[in-house]
Amino acid sequence: MSALIAEEQRRQAMLSGDIAVLEALLSDGLVYVHSTGGRDTKTTYLDKMASGSLKYLTLCFEDLQVHTAGPGEMVTGRMSAEVIIGGQSKAVRSLFLTVWMPELGADGQQRLRMLAYQGTSGPA
User: Fold this and answer.
1) Total-model pTM
2) pLDDT class of 123 with cuts at 50, 70, 90
């Protein structure tokens, strides 16, 4: 699977709140740095999604570019979203970088999983 396919699966899972898909896509070592400067691990990010304290109403990725990074891939792009954070509706526009690295799954198959996310506030 390519990082672009993984990004689209992640986008769809974020919109639908599909925790099982996100669980499979995100590395256990995930470092997720939001455009606000907040930081999450895989566990804290999934907890926010599962509890509804973080909910994506709309989510669009644009200008995606893939960059080879050793055995993995990095994706850069622009993100625009309408989210509910802690009960408050908010428009988010940012530039982002994701790092996808191959990892062995429980079934012994190697898959790309997102190891890092960095959002930077800015025009989207």
Assistant:
1) 0.91
2) low
